[in-house]
Amino acid sequence: MAAPSDLGFDPWDPAFLADPYPAYAELRARGRVHWFEPTNQWLVPHHADVSALLRDRRLGRTYLHRFTHEEFGRSAPPPEHEPFHTLNDHGMLDLEPPDHTRIRRLVSKAFTPRTVERLRPYVRDLAGELVAGLVERGGGDLLKEVAEPLPVAVIAEMLGIPEADRGPLRPWSADICGMYELNPSEETAAKAVRASVEFSDYLRELIAARRKEPGDDLISGLIAAHDEDDRLTEQEMISTAVLLLNAGHEATVNATVNGWWALFRNPGQLAALRADHTLIPSAIEELMRYDTPLQLFERWVLDDIEIDGTTIPRGAEIAMLFGSANHDPAVFTDPERLDLTRAENPHISFSAGIHYCIGAPLARIELAASMTALLEQAPDLRPSADPERKPNFVIRGLEGLRVEVG
Fold first, then answer.
1. What is the CA radius of gyration of the chain?
2. What is the pLDDT of residues 267-282, one digit of tens each?
3. Which of 37, 151, 339, 367 has the fewest CB neighbours in a 10 Å radius?
4. Which fold has domain 11-404?
5. Taking 80 as the threshold, does the pLDDT of residue 228 lie above it?
6. Domain residue extents for the chain
């Protein structure tokens, strides 16, 4: 194990954030697990280990199904953060069986492949309209004008949130997701708490309205979903809706702009894609691997585990480095090369195991729709300025991506 000072892993350094992949290569070369003092976490950089740990039931997204905070050697969150934790801790991403199993089963009754497939024409048409607007204006910010409005509108449509109410959704999501970064500040926490309260209050009213007048939407489906007289509680419905919105667009937005910026920097691959649109499905998988939207995923150690001779004790936290795993040469041939024809591509950008992303099929539909529309309507799309990267590590994206057409 390397000492923290010489790991080369610095998630607050702008140079590292600009390109973390060389540091990951160094981490992988130095070993399979590393203690990182600034966040009190064990970093795991190899694909085989990350993939196995995502399926290992000795780890958990929470520990409260087995231990109190005190028993686990942890402090309870500050009382002023309670609205955020109530919202977050009732979503299936942060639960373990049996609660996770029950909620995911009930949500799956509403979030069916048929439900997702039914959205395909809406997604295609909306992507076409957004790109047409961008082309008509001769360009603009790809993030603000295409990447962001598409998935936000799609998940809002799916949930049954009226168009007039959609304005705050993205700001609420951004403020809540700030808490998933490493060592968030008190200012970040205060924003997350405020957004959690406002979003929850809005959804409580929407759920009450749908109880009176059910519609053909996911909120109505969540209300109706039951299994042997078991139903979702109101808090579980609220937390599920927020999770679906946050997870349902954050990854898609960032995969879109990270992906196009990668294409612009690899003109040979972009030219191949423009010449052959049948590459779109494999291009989406490769772009999600090449510059991973979610760089890190955390798990608590519920029972002692051992990695490469190092015992990681119960109560510790593991940080699985998705971005590093997706560049592991043990799994990916020439991983630093963007290859849109890559046939074997077991990337873990959608996670794995029981917490595998329930929205992955919808994300792929959205990414394909926007890519198709841009290739067809803006075949000469090009950047008009180098983008600024967001000062975030866990959720990796750009502040914007200025492009021009014509």
1. 21
2. 999 999 999 999 999 9
3. 37
4. Cytochrome p450 (1.10.630)
5. no
6. 11-404
